[in-house]
């Protein structure tokens, strides 16, 4: 039986390949009222093993970027488009993204963030519903309807991109700085009205 328990997906069996390749469902982490919701594509091996999104090297890059932008991992919510690890760390397939879409939309709706930050091409295209040139659009904010509600989506390169191409570090950091402008984690005051 599949269902959500609060923000967590429990017992989902929608995708045969993903059910076979996962050791667990990897749900989002972070406050249920976070101003910033970061969305990756799918868990990798480290995430599947530890049961938390963005751990390992990509998680370290994300944590460092958040800190440099004046944020703490505990201040933001982090999730993925697909909650189960695809075999061999391949990209999630269109049907898998579609099968998990209502879980992601429910999480976005319940968190009600000031901005959703997409980490990489897959989540950017999934939430914006179009082709995205991530490097060229990183740091840009788009208004889009998600589950019938208006949302702001900020495009960012994936943290791993900075590991493979150090020239992407500045692009990644600039996107996180833009994201941080939507919140003031120290005072809890939103600065959204400035936009």
List the helices and strands and how they pair.
Layout: E1 3-5, E2 8-10, H1 16-21, E3 36-40, H2 45-50, H3 56-68, E4 77-80, H4 94-111, E5 115-119, H5 121-128, H6 134-137, E6 141-146, E7 149-156, H7 159-164, H8 168-180
Parallel strand pairs: 3-4, 3-5, 5-7
Antiparallel strand pairs: 1-2, 6-7
Organism: Haloarcula japonica (strain ATCC 49778 / DSM 6131 / JCM 7785 / NBRC 101032 / NCIMB 13157 / TR-1)
InterPro entries: UDG_Type-4/5, Ura-DNA_glyco_family4, Uracil-DNA_glycosylase-like, Uracil-DNA_glycosylase-like_sf
Keywords: 4Fe-4S, DNA damage, DNA repair, Hydrolase, Iron, Iron-sulfur, Metal-binding
Verbal overview:
This protein is of the alpha/beta class. It has one domain (31-82, 90-182): 3-Layer(aba) Sandwich (Uracil-DNA Glycosylase, subunit E). Helix content is 38%, strand content 17%. The chain has helices at residues 16-21, 45-50, 56-68, 94-111, 121-128, 134-137, 159-164, 168-180, and strands spanning 3-5, 8-10, 36-40, 77-80, 115-119, 141-146, 149-156. The strands form two sheets. A five-stranded mixed beta sheet has the order 4-3-5-7-6. A hairpin with a 2-residue loop joins strand 6 and strand 7 (149-156). It is globular. The termini are far apart.
């Amino acid at each position: 039986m599949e269902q959500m328990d609060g923000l967590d997906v429990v017992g989902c069996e929608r995708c045969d390949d993903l059910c076979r390749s996962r050791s667990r469902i990897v749900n989002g982490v972070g406050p249920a009222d976070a101003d910033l919701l970061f969305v990756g594509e799918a868990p990798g091996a480290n995430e599947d093993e530890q049961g938390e999104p963005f751990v390992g090297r990509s998680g370290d890059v994300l944590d460092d970027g958040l800190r440099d932008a004046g944020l703490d991992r505990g201040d933001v919510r982090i999730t993925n488009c697909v909650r189960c690890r695809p075999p061999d760390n391949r990209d999630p397939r269109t049907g898998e993204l579609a099968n998990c879409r209502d879980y992601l939309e429910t999480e976005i709706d319940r968190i009600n963030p000031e901005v959703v930050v997409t980490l990489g091409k897959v989540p950017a295209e999934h939430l914006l519903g179009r082709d995205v040139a991530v490097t060229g659009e990183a740091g840009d904010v788009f208004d889009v309807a998600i589950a019938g509600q208006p949302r702001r989506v900020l495009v960012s390169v994936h943290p791993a991109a900075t590991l493979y191409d150090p020239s992407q570090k500045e692009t990644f950091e600039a996107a996180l700085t833009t994201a941080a402008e939507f919140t003031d984690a120290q005072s809890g005051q939103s600065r959204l009205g400035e936009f």
